[in-house]
UniProtKB/TrEMBL annotation:
Similarity comment: family membership: Belongs to the UPF0235 family.
Record-linked PANTHER family: UPF0235 PROTEIN C15ORF40
Entry protein name: UPF0235 protein BIU88_09910
Taxonomic source organism: Chlorobaculum limnaeum
Origin organism lineage: Bacteria, Pseudomonadati, Chlorobiota, Chlorobiia, Chlorobiales
GO CC annotation, single: cytoplasm
InterPro entries the UniProt entry points to: DUF167, YggU-like_sf
Length: 105
């Protein structure tokens, strides 16, 4: 199953976050989820905000286009990116994910 799917006019991304990391960034795959490392601690929604900001920057969309759909208090989350297609997301993340995100597509 692919971590990237279409839902209406938005793209859903299954992610696994690792808070309190030494550096922030998209780290590759974690099973069937995209692994995202965050410097922020999971306190006062800081990790969720950083996760959305980081993904918005990686995808080249405004911060307001990315939001947490499910799993706000969990390490496993589903993020929603509006105004994109699954292929555009795969292309934007291809340098980090390589062919791994294509597996279930």
């Amino acid at each position: 199953m692919s971590p990237i799917s279409q839902k209406g006019d938005a793209v859903c991304l299954a992610v696994r976050v690792q808070p309190r990391s030494s550096k922030s960034g998209v780290a590759g795959m974690h099973g069937e989820q995209i692994k995202i490392c965050l410097k922020s601690a999971p306190v006062d929604n800081a990790a969720n905000k950083e996760c959305c900001e980081l993904l918005a920057k990686a995808l080249g969309v405004p911060r307001s286009s990315v939001s947490v759909m499910n799993g706000a208090s969990s390490r496993s989350k589903v993020l929603k990116a509006e105004g994109l297609t699954p292929s555009a997301v795969r292309e934007a993340l291809s340098s980090v994910l390589g062919d791994e995100a294509e597996a279930g597509a």
